[in-house]
Write a structure and sequence with these properties.
five-stranded mixed β-sheet, elongated, alpha+beta
Length: 419
């Protein structure tokens, strides 16, 4: 069914229409919006229109585009005016903003401001009368009011769906419309690929800016992750962050990396030891021999248990998988897989004790030591939707970050002497 906000063909106009509709229907929200944007008390009586000029009838989208009209116009009955120009794929144009300003002057307005909205901050200086907000800031503001305004809640949901479509269609090439607010998948809201693709992009954009990952793990914030997020026919999407020793020109499978996955039933945060990892990095683990490897993983497990204490329902995790690919473009065939709770390797006392079975850890070391196949080992944590409530909140990224940092001893051993 077509959304009530989808009244225009251009994505920018659709988003503006959604915003204008919300503010028009909820006049309390309209005044709060003006106060937030201008940092001043708004006039008592406000009107809001879109794709037209005050006092003139509304015209078609095509005619409005031809005449270069503002996307929206908020004004009072006397002298105050706030014009809106929104962008997504095309850059802001100072000449266009100036024409909007002059149009308000010609209509007798004396106190005039122009609100420019885009997905990223402008690279050039805007005129003094121009205020700027990103679409993600608009989303965040609406999200904060969603509990008290059904219209604000409807707008945030619309922006999330619109962003999923734009990401999937390749229309949104940089920036975001929303911010990461948690992963909502559950029995009532099953996993779907477009939404997961949107969420992994938002999550990785935020994690890329975490200073603790840069400082403690040597994460490269400018490192390139996956070129394209695929997995439409699968059950998960994933992306990764490079460490600073891994250049963008080098295949990421030669270097350990920080991986996050969003799947049908869980979130995954792991340090990946990829199948093509450089020989010296794998040798650094093998040379520990099993006793040393066990001590290393005991320390990692201790770190993980401590870091995940408040993320009830999560678990320290190890994933060992052997794959093969019939062709370069085909999906992987899994020939073997061992997944286990890392706590199985070490006795411990918890409210829900995990039975000790150290043979799983032994098998991991043996497989890594005697590697003869496309073998990947990953260490980190899982956060199942059914048992870990943190997945539905923005806090889940704090636990993804903490998981990676807890695995620092493993990273340090692999890349020792590299940097």
């Amino acid at each position: 069914m077509r959304n009530i906000f989808d009244q225009y063909s251009q994505p920018e106009n659709r988003l503006t229409h959604a915003l204008v509709s919300v503010l028009d229907h909820d006049r309390t929200l309209l005044k709060q919006f003006v106060r937030w944007v201008t940092l001043k008390t708004p006039p008592k009586s406000l009107s809001i229109i879109e794709q037209q000029l005050p006092g003139e009838p509304q015209i078609s989208e095509e005619e409005s585009e031809r005449r270069g009209l503002p996307d929206a116009w908020i004004f009072d009955d006397e002298y105050w005016s706030l014009l809106v120009e929104s962008k997504i794929s095309s850059p802001l144009n100072n000449d266009q903003l100036r024409r909007h300003y002059n149009a308000a002057i010609k209509r007798g307005y004396q106190e005039i401001l122009v609100l420019a909205i885009d997905v990223t901050k402008p690279t050039r200086k805007l005129p003094d009368y121009v205020l700027f907000k990103t679409w993600s800031e608009i989303y965040t503001w609406l999200y904060k009011h969603a509990s008290l305004s059904t219209w604000a809640a409807e707008a945030t949901r619309y922006m999330e769906v619109a962003e999923s479509k734009m990401v999937n269609d390749g229309y949104l090439k940089e920036g975001t419309l929303t911010v990461f607010s948690g992963i909502p998948f559950s029995n009532d809201n099953p996993y779907n690929y477009p939404e997961a693709k949107r969420l992994i992009k938002l999550a990785m954009d935020e994690l890329r800016g975490r200073k603790s990952l840069i400082k403690q793990l040597g994460m490269n914030p400018k490192g390139i992750g996956r070129g394209a997020i695929t997995g439409k026919d699968g059950g998960a999407v994933w992306d990764f962050l490079r460490l600073k020793g891994s250049s963008n020109e080098e295949a990421f499978t030669k270097y350990p990396h920080l991986t996050m996955g969003i799947g049908r039933d869980r979130v995954l945060a792991i340090v990946t030891v990829p199948h093509g990892i450089r020989t010296e990095f794998r040798r650094n683990i093998i040379d520990l021999e099993f006793d040393g490897f066990e001590d290393l993983m005991r320390l990692v497990n201790k770190n993980l248990v401590k870091s995940l204490r408040k993320a009830k329902g999560s678990a320290p995790w190890v994933d060992v998988v052997q794959r093969r690919y019939p062709s370069q473009r085909s999906a992987a065939i899994v020939d073997a897989r061992v997944e286990y709770d890392l706590r199985t390797a070490f006795p411990g006392n918890t409210k829900h004790p995990v039975k000790t079975q150290p043979e799983w850890l032994m098998a991991t070391y043996d497989a890594l030591s005697n590697k003869k196949s496309n073998l990947q080992v990953a260490v980190g944590a899982i956060f199942p939707y059914r048992s870990c409530a943190k997945t539905a909140t923005p806090e889940i990224l704090d636990y993804v970050e903490a998981t990676w940092i807890a695995c620092k001893p493993l990273i340090d051993i692999m890349v020792k002497g590299e940097y």
